[in-house]
Structures are given as structure tokens and as C-alpha cells.
Amino acid sequence: MSGISNASNAAVPTYRCDGSAQPADGAGEKGQGGKTHHGGKKHHGGTKGHGGKNGHGGKNGHGGKKDHGGKKDHGGKKDHGGKKDHGGKKGQLRGKVAAARKAWATKYGVNRETMPDLAPVSSASAAQKSAATALLTATESATAKYTNISTAETAGYDLPKSLAKAERKHPRVAKAIAAIDAGQKSQNGRMPMLHVANPANREDGKVLDPAAPETLMYEYTGPHTWKLIGVMYTAKECFPKAPPDPGGPITRWHYHPNSGGRGLMMHVFFVPGNDLARAYAAKMS
Known about the structure:
alpha+beta, four-stranded antiparallel beta sheet, 6 helices, about 10% strand, globular
């Protein structure tokens, strides 16, 4: 794997897939669609305006050349039996993309089913340990406000919605929660854990950003109480480039072969004493 390292006493950057880093509070030239600056030359639609070339009464206005009975029709060149198809080239393209993503995940990640649970801290360099510690402490600090479920929901982490989805997919979740609410212990001694994703953070162009992790992880301690225990970072936007791994063997990206193996993710658990082996473990222990 490749990436950049970061001293533990320095500001943790927002890592990017090209190996560069932006300050965590930086607001550079990245915009929505290219060279957009906040307050600069950003236009919504370029020279399109009200009353101009595309305004009301201009060339594309009401009463101009565009009409509903002219060249555009629903029985002309565009048809559902010609060049456009819904099961041919598009299906093949999706298959190729899925295969490419799977190859990418396999190249830069480890199999979740076979990886060691605890992160191999002993094989990391001093710089890598320092960088892993910096990422851990920065992440825990930046997300501390999300111990409040309402605050998390306002920021885009919808716990009730995620819980409803989890209960539909895994009926045992609802049963476990009900048992805990009734004062019973869980069968395996572990409390139910819930992944609460923020869709906007999965499309923000950043990776390993402590201020905006893609997913928060909560543990149910009941009744009606959830404890923030960590985050899950994803590297979807790095494809097909190598995702950053500031902590080397500690900050491991993994994939799930049973769900297609096309995505990369990294757990960061908030554990006592900042134990790196358990903080970057495959599962909470």
C-alpha cells in the first residue's frame, strides 16, 4: 500500500488518494464540478440567465423556436427497439466496472474473513505508529459531539433510519435490543452494534477526514441508549488509485468478499488507552 505519514504532534491532514494532503480546515479550490471557488466565478449554468439567450422570451423562450409540435417527437429516431437498450452495452459496462473495483479492493485491501483481528502494531515503524495515533485521537476528538444522537442526525447521520434498515435486514437485531431492554444479557455477551452512514460524506471527495467520517458506529447499551464507539472510513472515491495508509500495517483497509468485495473500509474504534492494536481491529472487542 502507499500513502503519506503524519507526525502525531502535527495537525492531521485530510488525506487524498493522489498522495497529497489538505489541512483539515482547508477550503481550497475544490468545488462542485471542478475549479469552483467559494465566492469566485461559480455560476449556476454559465451564461444562462433570465431574459438572456435562455430567458423567457429569448431564443428558447415561450413563443420562440422551441415548441411542442416541431421536430421533437416521441415516435421519431429515438425508440425502444433501436440503438438504445437496457440490457446490452450498459450491462456489460457495469460488469466491467464491478470487476475493476473488485480487483482494486483486492490489490489494496485485505480479506475481512481471513485478516487477523488485531492490527499488527509491532511490524509498524515509529512514524507509522505516530501517524496512526494522530488519526485515532483526531477522529475521536472531532466526532465526540456525535455522542448526542440529535446532533449526529442533524449532521446527516440518521440513526433511526439506519436502525430500521438493520432490523429489516437482520431480525436478530430487534430481538437483541428487546432482550436488553427487558434486562436480559445478550446471548454472545456482545451488545448490538449499528453502522450509521452519512451519504453526503461518501461523495465529498475526501478520505480519512476525521471531521467527516463516512460512517459512525454505535453500540446499544439500552434501554433506548446508544454509545458512540468508533467510525468506519471508506475509500470508494479513491478508485482506481491507492488509498492512503498513514499508519502502514496498522491502518488496514479491508473488503468483504461475501458482499462482492468491491469496496474498501477501515474501522477506528475508540478504546481505553488508545491501544492501536484494538483501535484498528477488525471487530470491536
